[in-house]
Amino acid sequence: NAGVTQTPKFQVLKTGQSMTLQCAQDMNHNSMYWYRQDPGMGLRLIYYSASEGTTDKGEVPNGYNVSRLNKREFSLRLESAAPSQTSVYFCASSESTGGISEAFFGQGTRLTVV
Amino acid sequence: AQSVTQLDSQVPVFEEAPVELRCNYSSSVSVYLFWYVQYPNQGLQLLLKYLSGSTLVKGINGFEAEFNKSQTSFHLRKPSVHISDTAEYFCAVRRTDKVIFGPGTSLSVIP
């Protein structure tokens, strides 16, 4: 019972490089989220997907794109990485849109852009 | 807009002492409230949640929180902390599709 799985766990990129962070959940949840965590700022929502086939911007979407590939998978893409995107990224999922269930989190991806 | 404020960024407390971590939210409509804990180098896990009903909510590891609608607060408490409670604690608000987190409070338990 894996829950929410993120890959990779660590990544170093050069400025301007691109990469995709992968996330998969095995709980049959409808909603999925990408957050970034920076010191003193808590978790900020980048994008979310309320259901398969839909995505919406969160608080800090600039510089990112997402794809809800199917119900299980929700990927985050950095097209041209910048040092300001150095952060810890968390994927999460929850049971339903507009529902009352909590979010379940992956273990995080620590990204450094040099 | 909806926001979550955690008034204390760091809280040091001696082992076996009580602790309160403060959380205030801004919203004019009903919200669902959560406290999450993050241990070093790990993801977040749910401590407790308030959905409706009793304003005193009990969670895991001996934590509890009280929802106060008039003060728009959802403070987290534990009567006696352990070294293992050292972690980052996040208050969060959910309405419809989004879960919004506060900036976090770092709890350090001193032996």
Secondary-structure blueprint of this entry?
The complex is a heterodimer of chains A (114) and B (111).
Chain A: E1 4-7, E2 10-13, E3 19-25, E4 31-38, E5 42-49, E6 56-57, E7 64-68, E8 74-78, E9 87-94, E10 104-105, E11 109-113
Parallel strand pairs in A: 2-11
Antiparallel strand pairs in A: 1-3, 3-8, 4-5, 4-9, 5-6, 7-8, 9-10, 9-11
Chain B: E1 3-5, E2 10-14, E3 19-21, E4 24-26, E5 32-38, E6 44-50, E7 56-58, E8 64-68, E9 73-78, E10 87-95, E11 98-101, E12 105-110
Parallel strand pairs in B: 2-12
Antiparallel strand pairs in B: 1-4, 3-9, 5-6, 5-10, 7-8, 8-9, 10-11, 10-12
Biggest sheet layout of chain A: 7 strands, mixed
**Quaternary organisation of the protein chains:** heterodimer
Sheet/helix structural class of chain A: mainly beta
| Helix and strand pattern of chain B | EEEEEEEEEEEE
Short description:
The complex is a heterodimer of chains A (114) and B (111). By secondary structure, chain A is mainly β. Chain A is built from no helices and eleven strands.
Walk me through this protein's architecture.
- The complex is a heterodimer of chains A (114) and B (111).
- Chain A has 114 residues and is mainly β.
- In chain A, strand 7 (64-68) and strand 8 (74-78) form a beta hairpin.
- In chain A, the strands form two sheets. In chain A, strands 2, 4, 5, 6, 9, 10 and 11 form a seven-stranded mixed beta sheet that branches.
- The relative contact order of chain A is 0.33.
- Chain A starts with a strand and ends with a strand.
- Chain A has strands spanning 4-7, 10-13, 19-25, 31-38, 42-49, 56-57, 64-68, 74-78, 87-94, 104-105, 109-113.
- Chain A is globular and about 40 Å long.
- With 111 residues, chain B is mostly beta strands.
- Chain B is built from no helices and twelve strands.
- In chain B, the strands form three sheets. In chain B, strands 2, 5, 6, 10, 11 and 12 form a six-stranded mixed beta sheet that branches.
- In chain B, strand 10 (87-95) and strand 11 (98-101) form a beta hairpin.
- Chain B starts with a strand and ends with a strand.
- The mean pLDDT of chain B is 90.
- The A-B interface holds A 4, 31, 33, 35, 40-45, 48, 50, 56, 58-59, 90, 92, 94, 97-98, 100, 102-108 and B 4, 6, 9, 32, 34, 42-46, 49, 51, 90, 92, 94, 96-104.
